[in-house]
Amino acid sequence: MGYKTIKHRGEASFIEKRSEFIGRVCPVTSEEEAVAFISEIRAANRKATHNCYAYILRDNNISRHSDDGEPGGTAGAPILDALQKAGVTDIVCVVTRYFGGILLGAGGLVRAYSKSAALALGSVDVISMELSDSIRAAFSYSYYGSVSALITAAGGMIRDTQYADGVEIFADIKTEDTEGLFKKLTDACAGNIELEVLSSGYREF
Length: 205
Known about the structure:
- This protein has helices at residues 31-44, 76-86, 105-122, 144-153, 175-188, and strands at 3-6, 10-16, 19-27, 50-57, 62-66, 91-98, 126-139, 157-163, 167-174, 193-204.
- The chain is an alpha+beta fold and 205 residues long.
- The strands form 2 sheets. Strands 1, 7, 8, 9 and 10 form a 5-stranded antiparallel β-sheet that branches.
């Protein structure tokens, strides 16, 4: 089962009735990393009125949020909702507000914090992570065209190719497709191929 996350940090801002809202997102894999990012943003924006946040982690299916002084339910929950609607995980979002002197009301705050999180998400690349195998295939030059074509056709991503007495291809393939690919490669090379799974884990596809 794959999941979606973001590839790098991102930031976006806008003005609503003279209040500045700055949304920032960051990929994280633990609560410690999420809390560290929140602390970093707070430290850099000590004069801000609020630094509200939400984060979602795959590990233990954790989600947390904070209104940081805004009326209950008007900041952290809308930020979390924006992340959930985008279908992303292993992510933290902090929305910094510099108050402009005009009250927005509960509905206005919900819309502003939701918009800020959505804009921050729009500033980054969302990537799909799939459970996959890193494989090695070793064979003679005469089979190179067939092997590389079969790996690509199966949705595999060739990471490296080495040429010596024969050819070695290193590639990533979704785990669910590994067995079928190995059978096709063995048939295409009439058994004259070495195949092995080097490692397994989640990788970007």
